[in-house]
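Supplementary material to the annual report.
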Amino acid sequence: MRLFHPMFAILLVLMTGAPLSQAAETGSPITFSDVWARPSATATGAVYLTMTNEGESDDALVSVASDVAAKTEVHEMTMTDMVMRMRKADSVALPAGQSVAFAPGGYHVMLIGLKHALAAGDDLSLTLRFEKAGEIVLTVPVEDRSPSKMPSMEHMGH
Ligand SMILES: [Cu+2]
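Predicted assembly:
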């Protein structure tokens, strides 16, 4: 049977397109975008990302790990009495249907005790463990994005 009528092609695209957009092929309802790490020549580095829960049940990021650093933690920057502080977040809630952005000035993944410098163009592997979705491994590109206004801020307290 030959199905070369243009209408069939359109139907096939519609039929195969739907499940892909739900990330069904990975089996995980958690999707990521805007994943990048800041270049670093010091002992610490930072990873930023946006995570979205496309599933029906609430989840939470409970731990992070990377083999490029001795210790990997989720940190949160907060403004208290006009002073920026950084503290370790034990978990980050990711309710069903919502996104959480890790971005300069807010949440970030802190790489502590880097085993080597991170240069733009490098990749690093980051493992995120979720309460329900389990472990997800991301490849994080090191990118030289818009320079931070306060480059030393993210390293405060380390
Ligand atoms: Cu930090």
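The helical segments are 6-21.
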